[in-house]
Specification:
This protein is an alpha+beta fold. It is built from 2 helices and 8 strands, in the order ααββββββββ. Strands 1, 2, 3, 4, 5, 6, 7 and 8 form an 8-stranded antiparallel sheet that branches. The longest helix is centred in the N-terminal third of the chain and has 29 residues, at 7-35. The chain is elongated and about 95 Å long.
């Protein structure tokens, strides 16, 4: 003999059905908010007003013809900068290392020149993938570069 389908059965089916949907939605929302690192620009109107200035700065950077090579030197970051005349000596280099999906706090790196054109960070950087925002300065010349360091 089979049991009759009652209102309690229908209630259980509906609660389970919508419970699964709610659980999936909450899980997906959690993944989405934890994986987003933030806004690209805080105010798009202000960014649009500065766009031509950014283009001009990029042209000045390209005119320098500096070439950068980033690698790991143990736990430190090694940066080699060359110019059309040779190595970039006496430069000031700073960087911010950010985890690509913001799993760790950003790390500020200062670089020390170990030989002409070769700079090594004075702080260690954990292994893994990092996005480096590097600023290289020598006198009035400045260059900003973005590197993906794995």
């Amino acid at each position: 003999m089979t049991k009759r389908f009652s209102g309690w059965h229908m209630t259980a089916i509906l609660v389970c059905f919508f419970g699964v949907i709610a659980a999936v939605n909450f899980t997906m929302a959690t993944f989405a908010t934890r994986g987003f690192g933030g806004t690209v620009v805080d105010n798009s109107y202000v960014a649009s007003q500065r766009f031509n200035d950014w283009l001009e700065a990029a042209r000045r950077q390209d005119d320098l013809q500096w070439t950068e090579t980033v690698s790991r030197a143990g736990e430190q970051v090694r940066l080699q900068v060359t110019t059309p005349d040779g190595a970039l000596a006496g430069g000031t280099i700073t960087a911010t290392a950010e985890h690509p999906i913001a799993r760790m706090e950003p790390v500020t790196l200062d670089f020390v020149e170990t030989e002409p054109g070769v700079y090594v960070s004075d702080q260690s950087l954990d292994s893994g993938r990092w996005v480096l925002r590097i600023e290289i300065a020598q006198g009035d010349n400045r260059k900003r570069v973005l590197f993906d360091l794995s």
